[in-house]
Amino acid sequence: MKPTTEPRTPPNTAPKTYRVKSFGCQMNVYDGERMAELLDEKGITPAPEGEDADLVVLNTCHIRERAAEKIYSDIGRLTKGKTQEKAPMIAVAGCVAQAEGEEIMKRAPAVSMVVGPQAYHRLPDMLDKAVAGERATDTDMPPIAKFDALPKRRKSAPTAFLTVQEGCDKFCTYCVVPYTRGMEISRPYSDLVREAQGLVEAGAKEITLLGQNVSAWSGEDEKGRAVGLAGLIRALDRVDGLERIRYTTSHPADMDDDLISAHGEVAKLMPYLHLPVQSGNDRVLKAMNRSHTADSYLRLLERFRAARPDLAISGDFIVGFPGETEAEFEDTLRIVDAVRYAHAFSFKYSPRPGTPAATMEDQVPLEVMDERLQRLQAGIGRHQLAFNEASVGKTCEVLIERKGKLPGQWLGKTPWLQSAWFEGDYALGDLVTVELVEANPNSLAARPLVKVTA
């Protein structure tokens, strides 16, 4: 949908502070960071913690259950009890904005801007119109154009996201991504290497490559040779100062031999793989339009583990897909036990308007989905704790990402993406060699293997 504007309203005061609230996936976190950089470039500053912002950007995710309704609730909370002069200027961005653009404008007069995930590079221009009194909607989907318009990365946390690919061509019957993010598009190789170098210069030591289907990334290297994701990873392996590389999210159909080999050959590529399966039953997988079977998925993981035996496996699951029987759900429990996931995300099926699954017969009752989700999460939790317990006694590096709650306490991630904490005289971004000494379901305690001062 091309950009549109609403009739003029009284001019607004130009905002001096902003807050970006991102929901959902890591891609949205990346997009939120880039929108913040656009606002920084415009001279608007982040609102101090605990203070109201003049401009609030709600960066939405359509994967959330009742996503649109929750956005209207957020808008209501931002404006409740406030006059027009005191209420913040509101922008709705992200996938809900793409799917519900004009409807948001009709239902929420407090919203000044609605911008889709492929058009947010035009947010500064839309803001100028909003200040002048025009309400603007932009849900156009130009391929890749936004990345050329975004500012250079000037600051970075120790860990950073880098979007390499957007969109998806798989059309899983439950998923809105092809409709809100478009078809698969890969960013150019040279642009990505350059942005990764800029992130490292700005302070990043770990980069996670992002895509709705990141393993579908393809491009041409500096010599004009066709390369896939593994080729990009090998190029980033040569970036001085970059210590760690990760990627997410992948589809089993696009995991090639070179990517499998990279897990055994590239030291900076961390021993962690997020590979969604969604169900352990072949009939359900076919109804979901997933191209793999339970057996082909397990055989693929065997190949990855052969290349990197200490690989931590993560996944995604949907319970209660239309027509799922108890026996079919039990197949999902069996695949959880077969893989022994170090971590996994699990959700109740939630119909998304416009997707084929939303109109399928035999929708599973909510109470059945609730009970199945509890059983699934209990199984996932057992294996996650077992994986953490098996890590006790290992020596590894932890990249410090933030301070802990106690004085002198630090939190970071192991190579297997486990949260670990320890104490000592360190700083954000330090890579600390530790021994993992105690396991909990969601974290590990660690002991630094160098002399430290508290």
- Contiguous low-pLDDT stretches (5 residues minimum) are none
Shape descriptor: globular
User: Which whole number gives the mean pLDDT?
Assistant: 91
How do the strands line up in the largest sheet? 1-7-6-5-4-2-3
Number of strands: 22
Distance between the termini: 57 Å
Beta-strand percent range:
15-25%
**What would CATH call the architecture of the largest domain?**
Alpha-Beta Horseshoe
Number of helices: 13
The Rg value, from CA coordinates, equals 23 Å
By secondary-structure content and strand pairing, the structural class works out as alpha/beta
Level-1 CATH class name of the largest domain: Alpha Beta
- According to CATH, the fold-level topology of the largest domain is pyruvate-formate lyase- activating enzyme
Helix content: 25-40%
CATH superfamily placement of the largest domain: tm_1862 like domain
Q: What is the number of domains?
A: 3
Largest sheet: 7 strands, mixed
